[in-house]
């Protein structure tokens, strides 16, 4: 089974990205052929300054490696290092119409947030389809907010295959219901654009600040509290079923305040990411090795995308006089 997914370096990754995509990708690494990339071109739709984009890309690369991405076993690269994908984007753009693209929730949401409605933002789903289809991906682990993008990808692939023959592999979204929408500090979906995120590699001080600002109701230590809301939901991500039951009991039993629970959540986060945080600090000191890994990753990725592109050029008439 070939698994592929990507993450935008549009800021610091957060617990929503981690539980719905990064963690699951690393689990797949044990059993499947894994393709994972940092979506640098996608991030250009929201990150304008070159130095910010470069720093974000480096950050996400370090995060993934620290969490356990193994570039020897898997293919791990930065999107803009594989030009075949952008070439495919143009070709695939004939397979979707403007009215269809106008239905994209993600485009509408971003424009509503004040992001410039650039041509790039509009054709974002086509680039994403190319990411997926260039590597003959079968399964794409994502959060719920990417569901419609996967539907566009399937529509594009279906239409392309109808016109040119059975060339593209039909991918499937792989959404895990219990982590499909991870809530943020304010209870809305955790999202970089809402500034309600928890960056699990942040300093202890910043993590503490973030965890402390999770919204709760105003019930005090001696009140019975309902096991619900962002504090309960975020903490639950770190617990198994028994742990969740125990947490629910703590909410319901007077004597524990939200402040205590928050500090326990902080401990749980630091413990869960403890080893990864150490590995990240070590990797950070060795940019040459990381750069070499990425160069090798892009080479491996190109070797997979190039033959597919050859088939596409042949079928579409772009490979002429041969
Ligand atoms: P991005 O960078 O916004 O997010 C990366 C992954 O994290 C998921 N996610 C969440 N899941 C649950 N709860 C949340 N609060 C939450 N916030 C984010 C996203 O659904 C995503 O799976 N367009 C993609 C990047 C991309 C891509 C691709 C993904 C580009 N090309 C090809 C798969 C295949 C994006 O913006 O993800």
UniProtKB/TrEMBL annotation:
Q: Which Pfam families match?
A: tRNA-synt_1b
Q: Which UniProt keywords apply?
A: Aminoacyl-tRNA synthetase, ATP-binding, Ligase, Nucleotide-binding, Protein biosynthesis
Catalytic activity from the UniProt record: tRNA(Trp) + L-tryptophan + ATP = L-tryptophyl-tRNA(Trp) + AMP + diphosphate + H(+)
Q: Tell me where on the tree of life, at the top rank, the source sits.
A: Bacteria
One GO-annotated biological process of the protein = tryptophanyl-tRNA aminoacylation
Gene Ontology MF terms: ATP binding; tryptophan-tRNA ligase activity
Enzyme Commission number(s): 6.1.1.2
- The UniProt transmembrane annotation reads none
Query: Quick check: keyword ATP-binding in the entry?
Result: yes
GO cellular-component term (any): cytosol
Family, according to the entry, reads as follows: Belongs to the class-I aminoacyl-tRNA synthetase family.
This protein is called Tryptophan--tRNA ligase
């Amino acid at each position: 089974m070939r698994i592929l997914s990507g993450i935008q370096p549009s800021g610091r990754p957060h617990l929503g990205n981690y539980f719905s995509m990064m963690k699951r990708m690393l689990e797949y690494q044990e059993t499947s052929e894994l393709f994972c990339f940092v979506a640098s071109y996608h991030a250009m739709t929201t990150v304008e300054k070159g130095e910010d984009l470069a720093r974000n890309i480096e950050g996400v690369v370090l995060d993934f490696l620290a969490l356990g991405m193994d570039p020897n076993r898997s293919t791990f690269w930065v999107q803009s290092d594989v030009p075949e994908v952008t070439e495919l984007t143009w070709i695939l753009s004939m397979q979707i119409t403007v009215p269809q693209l106008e239905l994209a929730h993600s485009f509408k949401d971003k424009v509503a947030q004040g992001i410039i409605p650039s041509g790039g933002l509009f054709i974002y789903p086509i680039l994403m389809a190319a990411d997926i289809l260039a590597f003959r991906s079968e399964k794409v682990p994502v959060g719920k907010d990417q569901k419609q993008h996967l539907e566009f990808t399937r529509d594009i692939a279906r239409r392309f295959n109808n016109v040119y023959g059975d060339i593209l592999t039909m991918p499937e979204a792989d959404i895990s219901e219990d982590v499909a929408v991870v809530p943020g500090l304010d209870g809305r979906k955790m999202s970089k654009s809402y500034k309600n995120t928890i960056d699990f590699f942040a300093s202890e001080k910043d993590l503490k600040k973030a965890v402390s600002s999770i919204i709760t109701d105003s019930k005090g230590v001696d009140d019975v509290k309902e096991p619900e809301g962002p504090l309960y939901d975020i903490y639950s991500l770190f617990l198994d079923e028994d742990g969740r039951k125990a947490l629910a009991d703590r909410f319901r039993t007077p004597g524990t305040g939200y402040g205590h629970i928050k500090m326990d959540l902080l401990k749980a986060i630091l413990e869960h990411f403890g080893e990864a945080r150490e590995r990240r600090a070590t990797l950070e000191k060795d940019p040459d090795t990381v750069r070499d890994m990425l160069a090798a990753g892009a080479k491996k990725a190109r070797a997979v995308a190039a033959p597919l592109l050859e088939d596409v050029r042949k079928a579409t008439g772009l490979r002429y006089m041969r």
